[in-house]
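Forwarding these from the shared drive since the link keeps breaking.
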Amino acid sequence: GASRGIGLALVESLLKRTSVPVVAAGRTALESPGLQALRAQYGDRLLPLSMDVADAASVKAGVEAAGEVMGPRLGLLVHSAAMMHPSGRGENS
């Protein structure tokens, strides 16, 4: 997701190095301090969306919301979602 880590770094880099609008999706995108700071700096160029790739309805709603802002054209998609290890250990263990 785009809320932190590599995903957030990619969002920040796209905003700094291009003039295109950026959609940043993730389960916690709306609560992300990093995305909130970037939204304050870049305004409407950044659209944070709450989306869970494991939930088809969530993905569909996210795509529709992005389409309302971006239109029917998509220039680049970066899918940066992680999966938890089957043991239940998270990425910080």
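-- next protein --
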Amino acid sequence: LEPKAAEFLGIPRSLQRGGGGAWERLREDLMKSDGEDSLSEMERILCEGRVVGAVRLDASVFGKWRPGSKETERLWISAEELQRNRKLQNKNNGRTLGNDKARSFPFMAKYNLKIKQDELNERKISLQRQRANSMSSPMRARMQWGNAQEATSILTALNYFCSMDERTTIHEIGMCGAGFDDADQDLLNGLKIGASPDALICHGNGTVEVLEVKNHCPFVWNNRHPKQKGKRTSMHKHHGNCQGRDRSSNQPKGRQYMIRDFELECKIPPMYIPQLMMEMLCVGDSVDLDNLTNSSLTNSNPTCTSAVMVRQTATKGAILLRLYRDESWITEMKYWLGKFKSKYVNTSIIPPDNFFWNKVGSDGDRYQKFLQHTKELSESVEQVGFIPHGKIQRVMLENGGSGEIPLFLDSVGDDIE
């Protein structure tokens, strides 16, 4: 993102990007043709990974599945089945309880697998080894936190929406490619675009929504740690318990990171507006997962007209927000994507800083209005619901443990070297 545009939208410097990465990626010649071969190549790359030199970048580079007996066990039991089993057990024991006294499970299903203390210890040792062999940074911590917590956030959405309507389902989904008519292709200058939401929400009334989850990493640099002295960092006010806190001071001393309690706002940060709009555009009207008929694909109105974002924290709960599809914003997005491709990608000219911000004349005014529209959309979202921290379903400890597993591994097995 251009520096001046990012500043206008209030995007933190750590999350700002220039146009160089997009320029490099769009110049790659991945597709052999515009026909069937092109689609087959796209599918192969998505499933198998890209080949860079003699190396294929796929899931095997990042780790392997570890088979175990737990994989053959039944992972979930529905709340309805739990209640039936409880009533049957009470009946066999000679007790009868009414529906009001048969406690219902608070979530849609119970996760059967529980983690052992020694498994937590193994996780801590593994992470310590990874940290010893790699550079530590807040961005790396954010990425790892987001990946680890994504499934929990999707489960938060499932529990919330199913509590309103048990017919609601959430579906995993891969890459969605947008289909355009000739006018769109002219606007985009032949650019092919796609997006992959975290999931799709299919409501009982037939409404389909994009689901995107964002997990706010609780870790920030500890300025008092010797490794961080002299480094510039943005610190926030801290509340509550902090792992590794020096009780004689207001700041923790011994840890490289400290925990920030993130207070949620009824707002989608502007940097995520393009992602959600692109996902709604690409999902479009081909989302009837149970009845993919021609009639469902020829509807002139898009089926997917809204997106739900779950913003989940480590200690302050989660907020569910809804953003509605805005056709005028999407048209402008296509215009600026096409402009970038024609002016820089097609000409092999490296984009400068603030490549659209510094434009003069009608295009400059148009870009300023586009940014202002983005900011307004981020602040005009609908709050769907708020989930307190204690109502978020997480993995529990196995025999001998009490409560949920800790969110942070700092204090796990402190006697382990």
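Residues 51-72, 228-252, 292-300 have pLDDT under 50 and may be disordered. The longest helix spans residues 138-164.

- D.
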